[in-house]
Amino acid sequence: MDRIIYTAAAGAARTLEQQAVISNNMANASTAGFREQLALNRAVPIVGENMAHTRVSTVATTPGTRMQPGVMAETGHALDVAIRGEGWFAVQTPEGEAYTRAGEFAVNAENLLVTQTGRPVLSADGAPIEIPERGTLTFGVDGAINVLGAGENPREIQMIGQLKLVNPPEEQLVRGDDGLFRLPQGAAAPADPAIGVVSGFIEKSNVSVAETMVGMINNARRFEMQMKVIRDASGNEERANSILSTNG
């Protein structure tokens, strides 16, 4: 069998993996705070007896992430908040502390401040944030959480805590299957008082729909070319076997 089939099959497999990543990016193009995932491959020479020096295969490398911020969109919702510049919100997960840029917050049945996926948002002291029942919530530019109770004097706003805002080195962050980012070994980043937020805004996904569509089309064409190589190699093998059988 012509070994080119293995080379083309490896390329086709990497193309399918990349298509899955691109499809996930497209599905999250409207997800607040989403960071575009990058599928990276590298060429690997095939070493062995009687191997051509030009024959190479491909393997997937550690997936990357495009960290450029998304566009800020004004919503006017009291529970929406966006980070200005660099930084992350800290949330609680079963695996420990994790980080997100999605500031579409809500209050759950236990009166805890949570993300849209139900993850408790953490305060500067690393604890879940409990919101007084029927309280009106506002955020300060430094992440301070202010609450006005129902029927209270507007001048009697109480600060009940502060969002934990962190800014660990981007190269240390590891993306999880849940879309959240974490530090290795479950480490917790310290709060950074220099990070500011804007209330009534959310940060949109940094995925470009147009570029993602072009990537999907290019991937489909690349996959078809790789499959054509496999079909041609298989056809050549059949013709060669036919000739050998006839001569025999």
UniProtKB/TrEMBL annotation:
The keyword Transmembrane helix does not apply. Residues 5-35 form the Flagellar basal body rod protein N-terminal domain. Keywords: Bacterial flagellum, Cell projection, Cilium, Flagellum. GO terms for biological process: bacterial-type flagellum-dependent swarming motility. Residues 199-243 form the Flagellar basal-body/hook protein C-terminal domain. Residues 82-146 form the Flagellar hook protein FlgE/F/G-like D1 domain. GO terms for cellular component: bacterial-type flagellum basal body, rod. It holds the Pfam family Flg_bb_rod. It is found in: Bacterial flagellum basal body. InterPro entries: Flag_bb_rod_N, Flagellar_basal_body_rod_CS, Flagellar_FlgE/F/G, Flg_bb/hook_C_dom, FlgE/F/G-like, FlgF, LlgE_F_G-like_D1. Its main location: other. SUPFAM superfamilies: Flagellar hook protein flgE. The basal body constitutes a major portion of the flagellar organelle and consists of five rings (E,L,P,S, and M) mounted on a central rod. The rod consists of about 26 subunits of FlgG in the distal portion, and FlgB, FlgC and FlgF are thought to build up the proximal portion of the rod with about 6 subunits each. Belongs to the flagella basal body rod proteins family. This is Flagellar basal-body rod protein FlgF. It comes from Paracandidimonas soli. The lineage of its organism: Bacteria, Pseudomonadati, Pseudomonadota, Betaproteobacteria, Burkholderiales.
